[in-house]
Amino acid sequence: MHSETSAIDDTQQSPILQFYLSALGFAGALVLTAYVASPWRELLRVSMIAIAVFAVWTLIRFLRVADERQRRTNFRALRFAFVAGLVLSLLGSFVQGFGVLHVSWIGVLGLQLIPWSFGLIYYSWRHQ
After folding, report:
1. Interatomic CA distance for residues 71 and 64, integer angstroms
2. Which residues, other chains included, contact 111 with Cβ-Cβ below 8 Å and sequence gap of 6+?
3. Are residues 3 and 61 part of one domain?
4. How many independent structural domains does the chain possess?
5. Average pLDDT rounded to a whole number, residues 36-51
6. Same domain, yes or no, for 77 and 56?
7. Which residue, of 19, 43, 66, is where some domain finishes?
8. Which region, left, alpha or beta, applies to residue 102 given φ > 0 means left and ψ of -120 to 50 means alpha?
9. 42 shares its domain with 95
10. 80 and 59: one domain?
11. What is the DSSP letter of 49?
12. Mean pLDDT, rounded, of the chain
């Protein structure tokens, strides 16, 4: 039984690791677009689209191999990320109305990824 559980965990680790690595690559490409010349900027934008498609594919793979406990954990983490993202978006819009803060629309991806990650960590830890 224990080897079966570790096999399931191994099948879940690979897609989630690929997802986070692609998110890191996306963030790196996003930062680089501000510092490179025009022809490279377009190439980085195209690569960001490819990275985003790969990230969605790995997320779908991760959700397909999840067992029932992991699906509940993901649901709770996504619910937490949605509420946190909504609150942060509203707060950011309010502050931006005063001209204090400007966040790129692409920053919303990070705004969703970070709370989802914290939700996954918290709810996974809570159910162990």
Report:
1. 9
2. 85, 88, 89, 103
3. yes
4. 2
5. 87
6. no
7. 66
8. beta
9. no
10. no
11. H
12. 79
Residue 54: pLDDT band (50, 70, 90) is: very high
Residue 71's Cβ-count burial label (10 Å; 0-12, 13-18, 19+) is: exposed
What is the domain extent for residue 73?
67-128
Regarding whether 62 and 74 lie in a shared domain, the answer is: no
- Tell me 66's DSSP state: -
Tokens of 100: 């204090």
Burial (Cβ within 10 Å: 0-12, 13-18, ≥19) of residue 119: buried
Same domain, yes or no: 77 and 125: yes
Kindly state the average pLDDT of the residues 54-82: 84
The pTM of the full predicted model, rounded to 2 decimals, is 0.62
19 within 8 A of 55, measured Cβ to Cβ: yes
Q: How does residue 2 score in pLDDT terms, banded at 50, 70 and 90? A: very low
Contact 59, 14 (CB under 8 A): no
Last residue of a domain, one of 23, 47, 66: 66
Tokens of 111: 């705004």
First to last CA, the chain: 17
Q: CB neighbours of 70 closer than 8 A, spacing ≥ 6?
A: 12
